[in-house]
Write a structure and sequence with these properties.
There is one protein chain. Helix content is about 0%, strand content about 10%. The termini are far apart. A 3-stranded parallel beta sheet has the order 1-2-3, with no helix packed on it. It has a domain at about 15-70. It is built from no helices and 3 strands. The chain is low in regular secondary structure.
Length: about 80
């Protein structure tokens, strides 16, 4: 994706019932993930590589029932 100025994701992302991939690679200004992402029932792959500002990643990733791949290379994400 490579959007270094993206600082937040729209709340409406939680309404995307058929999304299978969210690629936020190199969104270095992104400070957090919305809780609505955790409610996506069809999301299989979440890419957070290069997300240097995300302050926390919810322990409850397992809420994303279909998530099979999390890619977070070079990301400063402390798992809570």
């Amino acid at each position: 994706m490579d959007c270094p100025r993206l600082s937040e994701v729209s709340q409406s992302i939680g309404q995307l019932s058929k999304v299978i991939l969210i690629n936020l690679e190199d969104c270095s200004s992104l400070g957090s993930l919305l809780r609505s992402i955790y409610k996506l029932k069809s999301l299989e792959t979440l890419v957070l590589s290069g997300c240097l500002m995300i302050e926390e990643l919810e322990v409850n990733l397992e809420q994303i029932e279909s998530l099979t791949t999390l890619i977070a290379n070079n990301a400063a994400i402390p798992f809570q």
